[in-house]
Amino acid sequence: MIRAFYVNLSVVFILIISTRTLADCPLDHLLIGCNPDGVAGTDDDMKLFADCTMKYRHSDPNHSGEASWLNWYYPLYYNERYDRYQIDEPGFELIEVSDPNRRLKETPDVEHRIIIRCLSIAPGFAVWNSSIGVIFDKPGDTFNYSGFWDSHLHLQYRTEAPSYGTDLLWVTFQIYDEIAEYEVSELFTIVFAGEPLAGDLAVDGTVDVKDLVEFSYYWLEDGGCRANDYYERADANRDGKVDFCDFALMASNWENSRAGVSGNLNSENYE
Ligand SMILES: [Ca+2]
Ligand SMILES: [Ca+2]
Questions:
Q1: Are strands 91-94 and 29-34 parallel, antiparallel or unpaired?
Q2: Which residue ranges make up each domain of the chain?
Q3: CA 198 to centroid of ligand 1, rounded, Å
Q4: Residue 149: CB partners within 8 Å, gap ≥ 6?
Q5: Fewest C-beta in 10 Å: which of 110, 193, 243, 256?
Q6: How far is the CA of 259 from the centre of ligand 2 (A)?
């Protein structure tokens, strides 16, 4: 009898936590979908992407609960108990049912198997989930998003305090389909503690030829917006177009390094 009660309670608990929706969640999420232009019948219909509209929504270090989009990076907060800096967003979620043109097909592991891959991450930085532990802490780490029990994925980004100086922290992801129904996404980067230099598109704190290659990929694009992170910051002045104004900003930082620039930390205790 008691056992049956606990089984029923467990079922109710799982139902409650598995029916969380994005609308109920105060934390930022990057939304996984396909067909980034949202128009059916065009070349990108089967291409994966991450909608970055919510990226940096909670970027005001002093008012982390406000939807401010104040900065172009996430602040990190000091956790005295573990002597580290951390933040609990952004996570991942699927494009909403109400957006069928960009929504993935219904059945994970049958119609697609979405894998999130880490291509680059700052040394000493780690991405953690409360059910799994560390998911990403080095380039090449992958996570089977379709195989996880909840598509509403929460992540924590953390670095040990002694290793944290004034360096830029970042993680770069790509999404691919292991069943190969969908085409691989573009790279997308989340930065923490401070904004990269204008032109540092392949984020590593320095503006060099790797960034120029990325910049040329987006040259003369005119659909920059928050949802695509202004073409991963190729649109440096965020006017929607990637043109000579952005090239001039990149050129002004050519072969400069961000080392020594103060990051923006919140020293208030996290808990
Ligand atoms: Ca770079
Ligand atoms: Ca621009």
A1: parallel
A2: 25-196+265-271, 198-255
A3: 10
A4: 18, 131
A5: 110
A6: 25
Cα four-point dihedral sign 140, 129, 157, 172:
positive
Which ligand has its closest atom nearest to the C-alpha of 206? 1
CATH topology of domain 198-255: Type 1 dockerin domain (1.10.1330)
User: Residue 244 CA: which ligand is closest?
Assistant: 2
Rounded to the nearest angstrom, the distance between the alpha carbon of 239 and the centre of ligand 2 is: 5
CB 168 within 8 A of CB 203: yes
* CB atoms closer than 10 angstroms to residue 225: 13
* Nearest ligand to the C-alpha atom of residue 204: 1
pTM of the model: 0.86
Question: Ligand 2 center to residue 110 CA distance, Å?
Answer: 41
Ligand (nearest to CA of 230):
2
User: pLDDT 10s per residue in the chain (271 long)?
Assistant: 555 555 454 444 444 444 456 778 999 999 999 999 999 999 999 999 999 999 999 999 887 788 999 999 999 999 999 999 999 999 999 999 999 999 999 888 888 999 999 999 998 999 999 999 999 999 999 999 999 999 999 999 999 886 554 578 999 999 999 998 899 999 999 999 989 999 999 998 899 999 999 999 999 999 999 999 999 999 999 999 999 999 999 999 998 877 544 344 444 444 4
